[in-house]
Design a protein that fits this description.
2 domains, 10 helices, binds zinc ion, two-stranded antiparallel ribbon, ATP binding, mainly alpha, 2 strands, Magnesium chelatase, ChlI subunit
Length: 197
Amino acid sequence: MDELPEFPRQVLEVLREPLESRHICISRANAQVTYPADFLLVAAMNPCPCGYHNDGTNRCRCTPPQVERYTNKISGPLLDRIDLHVPVRAMPIEELQSKPDGEPSAAIRARVRESRNRQLQRQAKPNSELSGKELKQRCELGDAERHLLAQAMQKLNLSARAYDRTLRIARTIADMVGEEQINMTHLSEALGYRTLS
Ligand SMILES: [Zn+2]
């Protein structure tokens, strides 16, 4: 969904149910039907209506209330259900022209597949499908990691849902590098993906 805040608020809020439960329930006067709705949501938005807010230049002419009105179109509960928040900076032209090619998709695909296989071998399902209880079993944290997560919960004001999602992401980051135990590096990276929370 490109330009996410341009979608009507009620359309965005309807996404909350399937993002959480992977099915959608449609109720009419005399019937209720449940359909599977397991999908990957990828959404993009600008930081403000003109798109230049905080980009290191002073091109943005939006007023603070305008910026707030724009970002407030995405509700907290919807943001909570989005696992990875990734800020993308505009690239200066010199950098765009001098950058070497990135890692090929085929190599990344192999790494993702390996990580997924590791998850299936361990628990017969991908990390994304672990329940809260299963998460506790599969994501045992050391003292330092537990402390970091508790601090982040307070500072970033994270919800219980965001807590679970952060653990799931940390588990997946550990799986991506083939490590059994979630450590501070994995956890810090996972917390770094909650920038909009
Ligand atoms: Zn602006």
